[in-house]
Amino acid sequence: MTPALFCLCILAAFLELDTTYAFQLTLSRGIIAAPLFSLITGDVMAGIQVGVFTELLFTDVNPLGGILPPSAVVCSAVALALHACGIELYITFIFGVIIALLFAMVEKYRRKSRFRFLIYWEQKIIQRPARINQAILLSLSSSVAINFLILFVFIWSAIPVASWLAFHLPDQAQVACKFAYMAVPWIGLSALIPQFRLKTR
Fold it and tell me: What is the pTM (predicted TM-score) of this model?
């Protein structure tokens, strides 16, 4: 893991807070996060492409109620981190989507397990209201640390697997992966067209 990928994991861990935990300045959108990551990896064009593709792929999934969509930050970070290791973008994007889905499952478990933590701090804040700032700071810093560890492990594990797959994948499978990657914008646009049609009525 190079220093650049280490910095990418740190930035992604902070940007993941923007999804629901804090700020919510849309910095966690793929179209913004991926170009930011590409400034670290050094391939801005790849970052813009991954950002647009991620945005189009996840545009139809909204975090409403109990729905926890795949993380655009994780998808972009994984895709660009693997691409920085010399792996083709059409393979790394597939890994990004898969790991973003896995991250959503881990995040769902984390939110359930955080319930005891919230009850504990609720009692502390009732006793001393001034502790609310301490509780918020601890919650955000622990979220960043956990996000970083999860991302680091996912990327560290994916690098050898993606490298092996890129080298051993048959030519027909390579063509299929390229076709699937180039179909992503059309899938996203097909989800957007009905939404635009409803708004114009």
Answer: 0.83
